[in-house]
Amino acid sequence: MTIAKTADAAPVRRTGLFLALTLGIGLALAQVSQAVAQTMPDSFADLAEKISPSVVNITTSSVVAGGMGDGPTLPDGSPFQDFFKDFMDRNGNGGPAEPRRSEALGSGFVVSEDGFIVTNNHVIEGADDIEIEFFSGDRLKAKLVGTDTKTDIALLKVESDKPLPFVTFGDSDLMRVGDWVVAMGNPLGQGFSVSAGIVSARNRAISGAFDDFIQTDAAINRGNSGGPLFNMDGQVVGVNTAIMSPNGGSIGIGFSMASNVVSDVVDQLREFGETRRGWLGVRIQDVTPDVAEAMGLTASKGALITDVPDGPAKDAGMLSGDVIVTFDGKEVADTRDLVRRVAGAPVGQAVSVVVLREGASQTLSVTLGRRETAEGEETVTPAATPAEPAKGELLGLTVAELSPSDAEGLGLPKGSEGLVITDVDVNAEAYEKGLRQGDLITEAGQQKVLKVQDLKDRVTEAKDAGRKSLLLLIRRDGDPRFVALSLE
């Protein structure tokens, strides 16, 4: 009897344990479901109703030159070319077609009650007539206030006899991967449309120096260009600009220019009709791990200065080889970060810049110039003519002291100095890192090199200091960059 009870009791205990586990799992799942329910909106209807009146459809038209009629396009020299020309001439269709008007569609959004509208530059580029259709169905002609091709942003203005509903910019830096976003616009010319998704990635770059795109899986198609990307508070956190697609339709990879970039551009276009970006006057590259090791840095972050032409940075005492670690009180992550920070700073403003130089930090005050004025300008200071050429081999390189004839043959500015690379071992690290015959070495270990012995001395010094690599400053076609080569 006792044995029987014991035998019967075991299944009861196991069943109780199973029930407890089941209840625990069910409770956990319920808590997860509750959390998801709290973060996932039941509907986007209230938000869509709130933001819709500020979103607009944009129709542009322009006159395009006529072609050679509607005949087929044939390559020059084709045996059919004369045949079709004779045929088209006989039927009166051989001459140039009359100029015609071409129309394009896009999206935009109102940012002020007095009628300022933001869209993409590529939506209105080349247009001689711009018409705005509002959510209410009203239509107004718009004039172009200004554009910025670097961020693909344009600012328009309409005149209305009543205040217009508008939206404000939010802080795009607060957006996190996974946050809900809503896109609105005129996809494929179908009229006002709303799509929802999440932030898929941040800080994407496509092609421009000022790129700071939010990637989203909210459906964005042709015609959505220039439309807004909203956060859940109804603030604009991006301008829908591009998609990645093999077929031209949405596959869930869309890009919106971050609102913190756009709002600065819009403010400048509104005030000046053009952009006025800050200019530091340096050439820079990222601090890679091997470059950081070669320079004795503790972290591979900041922006490494490769050249300092005449300009604000030179006036402030910046030098090639300095690493910019903070700009205007904020840490610099990399070159893209610095470029955007400088561009967003007011022209003529004095800013504090902290640089690392020979292992120590220095704080410099730089009065920024204007990028649009200085862009493309570069001054090279003449230097003394180097001594008679000599050659040497090290680090997988064959180098020679630069002679005036070498400089002329390489198209280098008069007065250039350094060691010219005459050959690169294809099995060496130098070849893997892109060094080639004709490149000019101007610095090694952040010191000038004029003779082969200078380079050998820098190698010895780096080894004696326990360094695993040596930092070289290379110039190719006048453009400088740092390359770290292993000493092992």
Written account of the structure:
The structure is a single chain. With 488 residues, this protein is α+β, with helices and mostly antiparallel strands. Helices cover 25% and strands 33% of the residues. The chain has helices spanning 2-39, 45-51, 81-90, 121-124, 259-272, 289-295, 312-316, 335-344, 371-374, 404-409, 429-432, 452-464; strands at residues 55-64, 100-110, 116-120, 129-134, 139-148, 153-158, 180-185, 193-204, 213-216, 228-230, 236-243, 254-258, 278-279, 283-286, 303-307, 323-327, 330-331, 350-357, 360-367, 369-370, 391-394, 397-401, 419-424, 440-444, 447-448, 469-476, 479-486. The strands form five sheets. Strands 21, 22, 23, 24, 25, 26 and 27 form a seven-stranded antiparallel beta sheet that branches. Strands 1-2-3-6-5-4 form a six-stranded antiparallel β-barrel. A hairpin with an 8-residue loop joins strand 8 (193-204) and strand 9 (213-216). The longest helix has 38 residues, at 2-39. The model is unreliable at 1-15, 71-81 and 377-388 (pLDDT under 50).
